[in-house]
Amino acid sequence: MSVRPIVTLGDPRLRLAGEPVDRFDKALHELLDDLTETMRAAPGLGLAAPQLGVSLRACVVELEDDRVLELVNPTIVRGDGNDRDLEGCLSVPGYYGYVERREKVWVVAQDRFGRRIKAAADGITSRAFQHEIDHLEGILFIDHLDSLDDLIPVSRIRAEQGLPEDDEALPASA
Ligand code: NI
Fold first, then answer.
1. Residue 90 alpha carbon to ligand 1 centre in Å
2. pTM greater than 0.90
3. For this structure, is 132 an active site residue?
4. How close is the Cα of 40 to the center of ligand 1, in Å?
5. Which CATH number fits domain 12-161: 3.10.20.30, 2.30.110.10, 3.40.1010.20, 3.90.45.10?
6. For a designed S-S bond to 88, which of 72, 93, 107, 173 qualifies (C-beta 3.0 to 4.6 A apart)?
7. Does an H or E element contain 133, and which?
8. Distance between Cα 46 and ligand 1 center (Å)
9. Are the C-beta atoms of residues 90 and 170 closer than 8 Å to each other?
10. What pLDDT score was predicted for residue 122?
11. Other residues' Cβ atoms within 10 Å of the Cβ of residue 50
12. pLDDT single digits (tens) 55-99
């Protein structure tokens, strides 16, 4: 396992739609391991293969019980409710924005061995699922804003929420 560099805004690889995964081999397992290690080192709540410059439909999401869920070829099959909250992206460092998402989502995907899995999530995990699956389409949270003027710099989040100069105190990015 290794921590790989995270691709940031401006790199065209971030805007490519991921190719479906059809080989559940050692290379995929290494990619998933590196996604988890890189996400945890950041730290972040999720990470998608295009953020490592790899154009494949694979991502990881940190669950609330400290388990990591690996999603290969994920699709959102159902959404319910709406929720507007702060969102940040490891590929757009230094900024957050208020993004409207589905409050709860149901996802079908495959695991690292190609077995079909289902997952449902609400709250911050639902937001992370939607954020990561967007990445697999080359979509970033900033695309959901009416204007880039709606981006909120980290310094303002810290000031408004009375947070210390410590990145771990900030709302999670993914
Ligand atoms: Ni992101």
1. 5
2. yes
3. yes
4. 14
5. 3.90.45.10
6. 173
7. helix 123-135
8. 7
9. no
10. 96
11. 28
12. 999 999 999 888 999 999 999 999 999 999 999 999 999 999 999
Chain-centroid distance of CA 29 in Å reads 18
Angle 17-21-22 from CA coordinates, rounded to 5°: 140
Q: How far is the CA of 30 from the centre of ligand 1 (A)?
A: 20
1: Cβ contacts below 8 Å, ≥ 6 apart: 30, 33, 34, 36, 37
DSSP letter for each residue of 3-69? --PPP-TT-GGGGSPPBPP---SHHHHHHHHHHHHHHHHTT-SEEEGGGGT--BSEEEEE-TTS-EE
Upper half-sphere CA count for residue 84 (Cβ side, 13 Å): 5
Domain coordinates in residue numbering, the chain: 12-161
C-alpha distance from residue 2 to each of 23, 91, 111, 167 (Å): 21, 18, 20, 21
Q: Which of 132, 137, 160, 165 is catalytic?
A: 132
pLDDT at 169 over 80: no
Query: In angstroms, rounded to a whole number, what is the distance separating the alpha carbons of residues 95 and 157?
Result: 9
How many Å lie between the centroid of ligand 1 and the Cα of residue 68? 16
